[in-house]
Write a structure and sequence with these properties.
Length: 144
């Protein structure tokens, strides 16, 4: 089967905008899980650890998002190398649309959606190591 091109697609510009809006709304819902995890972890820790837990959640979004932008998105969605990992699209540097099974999706909304999942995954680990790791050690974990 031929890979669909933009000329072959039937989605209108308005439908593509609606798709991007839906994807960004979903990403926002996923990112709000960060605050929920932070509140759960704060409630599970002894008094005095609240600031540490909340700062870990901020570090997850900032450092985790930075590393996902630099390397992660390219490894996940770049042009494949023998089906194992992506070899381009690092720093989100190609064209601005993606094609999935006949639809065009704005690449930036796709990145934000995947960024939300990547940073939320690191936050889950934050709860497991709450009170057990130094803050700087956790910053290094979150970056890599």
């Amino acid at each position: 089967a031929a890979i669909p091109t933009i000329g072959m697609l039937n989605a209108t510009a308005e439908e593509s905008k609606d798709d991007a809006t839906w994807v960004l709304t979903s990403a926002w819902i996923i990112l709000t899980m960060q605050s929920g995890f932070g509140l759960l972890e704060s409630g599970s820790m002894p008094s005095g650890f609240e600031v540490n837990v909340m700062m870990k959640n901020v570090v997850d979004v900032v450092f985790g998002g930075l590393s996902y932008w630099m390397v992660g998105y390219g490894l996940n969605h770049g042009q494949t190398f023998h089906g194992l990992l992506g070899t381009n699209d690092f720093f989100l540097n190609r064209d601005h649309t993606l094609q999935f099974s006949g639809t065009v999706l704005d690449k930036y909304s796709h990145f934000i959606f995947n960024f939300a999942f990547a940073t939320t995954a690191t936050t889950i680990v934050s709860g497991a190591v709450a009170g057990r790791l130094k803050f700087t050690t956790y910053c290094w974990y979150s970056l890599f």
